[in-house]
Amino acid sequence: MNYLRPLAHLSRVFSHTGIPLCIVAGAITASIYYGETTLSNPSDNIQHISLSLNPSEEYDVNEIDISVFQMDTATTGDTSKNAYIGLILDGIKRDIFSNNPIDTLSMLGVPDDSLTETYVAYYYLLVRQKSYQTVIDQLSVKSVPQRLAEGTQFYYALSLSKKGHQQDALDQYNQLIKKNTNHQSATLNSAIIHQKMEDYTAAFDLFEKAVTITSGSRKAKALAGAARCSTQLGNINIAIQYYQKSIEYRPGNAVTWRLLADTMAINHQDYRSVVDTYDKAIALNPNYSIAIERKSRYQMENADFYGSIKTLSQALPKSFSESDRQQLLTWNYIALGQRSNALRSITKLVDIEGDNPKTITPYLLSYVKKSYKQLSTKKWNTLPPSILYLHALSDIKRHKYDAATKKLAVIKDHPTLSTRVALTTAKVHRLTKQYRESLAIYNRILRSHPQATNAWYDSSKVYSRLKDHQQALSQLEPALAYPKAIKKYQLAQADYLMALKQHARAIEVLESAHDTFPRSIKTLSRLIAALIVIDDNTSAEFYLLTMAKRTPRNLDNLMQLANIQYQQAHYESSIATLNNILEIKPNHIEGRFLLANVSLKQGDKNGTLSQLSQLLKLDNAYQPAIKLRNKLLLKRSASRASFSQLITFSKEA
Amino acid sequence: MARKMLSALPPWLVLLTLTSAIFLTHLYVTPLKSDLLIPESIFQLSLDMTFEPEDTDVRVSTFLPKTNHRQSLIGETNLAPDMEFHERNNNLGRQGNWAGTDQSRSVHYQAHITTTATRYDIPAELLIPTSYDNAFAPYLSQTDAIQVNHPEIKQLWNNIAPSSNQYILDVLSAIYEYTTHSINTVPFKGVTDSLTALRLGEASCNGKSRLFISLARLNNIPARLVGGLILNEGSKKTSHQWVEVFINNHWVPFGPTNGYFAELPAHYLELYRGDQSLFRHNRNINFDYSFTVAIDTISPALYHQQPEDSKNKTNAAVLLQGLGLTPKTSSLFLLFPLCTLLITFLRNVLGMKTFGIFMPMLIGAACYATGLALGLVSFIAVLLLAFLFHTILDRMHILKVARLAAIITIITCLFIAALYFVDIDHHVEFGMLTLFPVVIISFIAERLHQLSAENNWNDLFYISLGTLVTVIGCFGIFNSILLQGLFSLYPELLLLVLSIQIYIGSWSGIRLSEIVRFKKVLFKDAASLVGINGRNRELVYKHNDKKLLTLAADKLAAKEAMQALDIPVPDTLGSCASHREIQPFLEVIATLPRFVIKPNNGSQGNGILVIIGKQGDDFMSASGKIWTLSKLKQHVNEILSGIYSQDGDTDTAYIEPLILQHDSLQSLAPYGLSDIRIIAGKGKLISAMLRMPTKGSSGKANLHQGAVGIAIDLATGITTRSSLKGQEITHHPDSGAPLVGVSIPFWDNIKIMAEKSYTAIPLGYLGVDVCLDKTQGPLILEVNGRPGLEIQNVHNRGFGNELSSSISAS
Known about the structure:
The complex is a heterodimer of chains A (653) and B (810).
Chain A: H1 4-16, H2 19-38, E1 46-50, H3 61-64, H4 85-93, H5 101-107, H6 115-128, H7 132-139, H8 144-150, H9 153-162, H10 166-179, H11 184-196, H12 200-213, H13 216-232, H14 236-249, H15 254-266, H16 271-284, H17 289-301, H18 305-314, H19 322-336, H20 339-353, H21 361-368, H22 385-397, H23 401-410, H24 418-431, H25 435-448, H26 453-465, H27 469-480, H28 487-499, H29 503-516, H30 521-533, H31 537-550, H32 555-567, H33 571-584, H34 589-601, H35 605-618, H36 623-652
Chain B: H1 2-8, H2 11-29, E1 40-50, E2 58-64, E3 71-79, E4 83-90, E5 93-100, E6 106-115, E7 117-121, H3 151-160, H4 168-182, E8 184-185, H5 194-200, E9 202-203, H6 205-218, E10 223-230, E11 234-236, E12 240-247, E13 250-254, E14 263-264, E15 268-273, E16 279-281, E17 288-298, H7 316-322, H8 327-350, H9 359-370, H10 372-395, H11 400-421, H12 430-434, H13 438-453, H14 457-479, H15 481-489, H16 493-506, H17 512-517, H18 519-524, H19 532-543, H20 546-553, H21 555-564, E18 574-576, H22 582-591, E19 595-599, E20 609-615, E21 618-621, E22 626-627, H23 629-641, E23 653-656, H24 663-666, E24 675-681, E25 684-692, E26 708-712, E27 719-724, E28 727-729, H25 747-760, E29 765-773, E30 777-784, H26 790-795, H27 800-809
Parallel strand pairs in B: 8-9
Antiparallel strand pairs in B: 1-6, 1-17, 2-5, 2-16, 3-6, 4-5, 7-14, 10-12, 10-15, 11-17, 12-13, 18-23, 19-20, 19-23, 20-21, 21-22, 24-25, 24-29, 25-26, 26-27, 27-28, 29-30
Helix pairs in contact in B: 2-16, 4-6, 5-6, 7-8, 8-9, 8-14, 8-15, 8-16, 9-10, 9-14, 10-11, 10-13, 11-13
């Protein structure tokens, strides 16, 4: 068995060496490793608790051991929580405190171990009651070290600043800060004083220091202070960062949000972000008039006229000055070309302000009321920018484009008017058929102001003038994306679609517009016209009927309806409509003619002839009627002749 | 009979049986709780508060972790120099208050916490109660920041209320859905009341939670704020807030910020309840704080166990912690024996060599404290530094003990210096790190230095690798949560470890590394092969008396013993046992034209200096190097210091005359001195080989260093086979002389001398080294009580059977 020999040999080798031990050790190690890895997921240990139903169960409060919710205030020695506040207030009221209040307090029974604390509380209360001079008078006799030792230095400094002695106040604060570099209030107040003294650099440094040593809302104030200083120093980006940080620590402060928005606006940040930031300020305080006004102005200055109008409309009644609101609304409506709305708002403004020539109101009124001559002067160079703008607008209305252009050139860089001026200039170019120039301006504005929905619309009209309806449609898209449906945009869209022969899509748009603006005659007309183009007379008839209800005396619409009804073979309806027309205007030639045709369709030749003869009495030269009558008569003679022949034939027969 | 049977049983088996019995009994009495073996996450939370009070006292308070149904505070420390601390407990939380002076600067608080994730199942049919006890009033009422009755809150509810708002689940789902998804999460740091959160449409955790509570209270559901921390690893300053809603006698958690509905994950730590501030302090102290969280995995058997609990009376870790040891140290203590078992296995079964026998275990323990990567890097860094300084100090000829002491001092200084530059954010167990076996590593570095000086790179590599493997293995054991748990709960397993250790100690088999070394012999005749285990246990321990071993190691004493029996040995021209004797010793040397200086307790030829001639007043060694008298003096000093000594102790240097090799061998191997190794078992000659130096062995007759081994037939004295580093050769690599069929002169004399050596030093397993002097003939150089086993490879056969029969015959 030679083949077994190697095996036997191997087994001898195996048994003499450490291989079996290694195998056993390996197995043990593998087991431990397996056990370790199997048990090594500690996170799976979740305690499940089922809240079983037990409707009749009563709540055992003791089991839960609920105690007083409010935390008892720690006795940290906080001045405002001094136990003798009442005593001090009473003493102040009775004016019993002498120049040495400590003696008075002692006399009032304040124990010695609370005397110092209460002494400080006395000055705290004086400051709370705004008795700054008393504080100054009493504490000025003491030296700085004395005041520092007593703990009254801060109140002395504060009182000095309240009484307008800013430099003295600063000096006293500095003494306090020298003693304790981490004194939050002293640092903050020093910063504020520097800011008031317009030493923004020093103020900024102190605010920055205050940021490092304060927390919570104080830190937020310090950050906001630093931001304001940065703005003054021209470091707008830094200011924005600080405002944002301030908001992190005090997110509920509307003023900080508004200041941030203002700064972002100055820095020409993204329009949407600025508006959102204003929105947050307003959300926190719906009565925050400054924020509302700033937001609406910002929107208007950035050609978001609809947005500005929405802001002004949504402002709470007493949150905003009504005159400011109406003025802004007037401007917005003017920009949009909505004269009737502008008239409404300017009327309200006049009611509020009267016709004060020192304000812009009379100029706005003149413009809106189309009293353009009143907005014409040779000395326009000296006019304030807003009035000059109105002059330019009125020039446009009077087709004095060159004059308008000159005036617009003067104010084209004005910070609050520049965008509107540019849009107006583009409009002038459009009106003077300088379409390329017009488009160049529009597109430049739209690159930086994509929110200017009306500019998208206006520029789309230019493309339409150039017969580039596809581009016009593309240009209109951003305007159509405006959250609120704007009728004129939808109608423009329909027009472009019709021009592109996309009739079905145009009708969809018009139907949607009609649903949104059911009372709009213009929309209905366009829709009817579109339906007629595609020969959808059924729908056209439907809408014409609607139109007829809206405008029962509009003869054109009624005539159109009668025609459609005739074409649809709805003869009775057509007759009814035509009779309606004739009631309104008995000498309506086309109506009578159509009526005759209807009668003819109904087989009433005599009736037809009767109608025709009446028509011809009204207009004996009306050729269509003449032709028809002759035709009918000819037929009648022919048939009579035939009949006679027939009778003759039969007779002969 | 029973006693006989018992005594016949191997000790390890007896121990194993005993262990099994104890273990089974223990298991019966205290059934295994598997959850104690499942690892648990433990969070180490550190809170550092700093302040600069300048001219005012300091008062600081914060909420500290406490134990409740889902979190457990295992331990905490509070370091606040010069500050008073007191604690206040109420239902809002556990508040720690520190009070200090204007000199106080910091508080360092640390806690170890375990937590559990909880999840609540709310039945769909559960109705909202219509009334509650008065005690719930605070959780239903409006506050400045929770504006329950504000019209906007009510309007919001009108917009989001479900169709049926009488069921708790429906109402809470609607509230949760709104606050989680409709209110954006932004990183506000300040307090946000519910109205602000609603108006802004965005808020951080506290704003969202307040809004949640407003809506819940509006629906007559008691709700409260809970504050705490999210325990993610790293440093942070941000705390967190979530909501608890009272449902059916439970306060059920909701986290609208991170999307937790009726559940709370394990890494949420509750600190307080109610609309509180986490920190309160007096003003103007520039207060700052930072949390640091570290996550570790622990064995529950080491923690949570109260000594008073009867079930824990056998928990060894608990008992050790009762002495004041930390859980980590307790686990180390319990697992040391298992590591020693691993080391024993690796050395005795695998044949792995390491620097130091149990040193890797200590390094592994240090790595357990610092982390494996950091530990290994530190180990290698310290080792390299120690090696570097060994080299520098060696060049300065600093004596051994002083050199080691200097290296330890230098490394300690460097460590302290490093602390100035390294910013250590997390707290390592510095007890371990500072004691990071600097001392032991310094010793290792010496061995490393020695190996590198000998250019023994092969050995250096394998020893380094073996050390690394052992360190990692020991680290793995210390780090094993399962083993920590098992040995804590069942300390009788240590007896099992002991039984295995005894078993391995009794095992004489061939190590795995020897399979490679002796593979030819092994596969030829496994039974006759003697490995190191077999040599040590069956031959040296059994048949070599310790005193005789000491005698054999003492070369001078051994020579005396042999001279007493007229066995020819080289003369001793002089000896020097202490530094006082150096001068006379050198005076002797100065008169000699050629000689050999040897350490008395040396081995493997280390420390032997062969001087073959003089150049003026200087001496020339066999390697061609010039030695001045002062250099010789240094060498002697080194011998005296014990550098070359087998046991590391101080030694004696002695001089022998230079042996001029017999022509018969000189013609074969002109470099160095060849010698004949004869193995004897109880006086009977077993095997013999001729060892011839080569250039590769630097003139040393050491087979491991590259000398040629030539098998000699005992009967005839003729060489039969030769090999070099395991490969069979026929001719000397340097001289080219044929090596097989060479007749060894004076062979019979040599045999007689070897037999007589046994009489002089009756070691049962004896190696006799004989050289052939040109004029004096065969001389015994030394006797060896632990002769090597390479002779088996030279002969290509084992000598185990012959040894056994010769030993048993006598």
